[in-house]
Amino acid sequence: MSGHRTPLEQDEMIILGNPEAETGPGVRWENMQDEGGGELDGDGHGGALVRSHSVTSLAPEPFMIMQSRSLNRRVILNVGGVKHEVLWRTLERLPHTRLGRLRECNNHDAIMELCDDYSLIENEYFFDRHPRSFSSILNFYRTGKLHLVEEMCVLAFSDDLEYWGIDELYLESCCQHKYHQRKEHVHEEMRKEAESLKTH
Questions:
Q1: Which of 88, 90, 142, 199 has the fewest other C-beta atoms within 10 Å?
Q2: Single pTM value for the model
Q3: pLDDT for 194 beyond 80
């Protein structure tokens, strides 16, 4: 490619099949995976110039986001620093949940409504949440079975279900009674504590 471009113009571009193209601040050449899981090179058969999202760079254009999705069958979900890798199509099984909606996002603002940060280069989406319950949450997408996390406070687990957009009614029958029993017990203890404070 020829001619001088400003850093702003370079930052907004995505270049396919030309690893020798000029690159400006905020962009770098990356080999990306195709849908079969293999890497795409820069000899005209693949490759992409993509810019990671950060507070110092511009938001990616929708076509850059769609390009990333088309080149990656899998995605990395980083929850509180713990990374999980999952197929995009697995998230499609629950389209009305937070992760299901993320799968359909095609612009920066919509993505940022659902996660706290992301990088197209790393193919990673970050959620600033405690990771303790997420294995159970993600397993629900994979198996269709939702189980209570035993070592968690039941109210914290309930908050996580709400955050990820999963109704507690999906809990398996083996966990339903235990979940509601524990939840009611905690609420009762909180009511007793509140009443005790009023009398003092």
A1: 199
A2: 0.70
A3: yes
Distance CA 74, CA 95 (A): 17
DSSP 3: S
Cα radius of gyration (the chain): 22
> Is 181 or 43 the better-scoring residue by pLDDT?
181
According to the model, what pLDDT value does residue 199 have? 75
The pairing of strands 48-50 and 74-79 is unpaired
Cβ(165)–Cβ(101) below 8 Å: yes
Q: Judge contact between 46 and 40, C-beta under 8 A.
A: yes
The secondary structure of residue 73, as a DSSP letter, is S
On whether the CB atoms of residues 137 and 166 are closer than 8 A, the answer is yes
Amino acid code (one letter) for 132:
R
Q: What is the largest CA-CA distance in the chain?
A: 80
Count of C-beta atoms within a 10 Å radius of residue 142: 11
Confidence of residue 4 (pLDDT cuts 50, 70, 90): low
Cβ-Cβ contacts under 8 Å for 62 (sequence gap 6 or more): 106, 107, 108
> What digits encode the pLDDT tens for the residues 118-144?
999 999 999 999 999 999 999 999 999
CA angle at 152 for the pair 146 and 154, rounded to the nearest 5°? 75
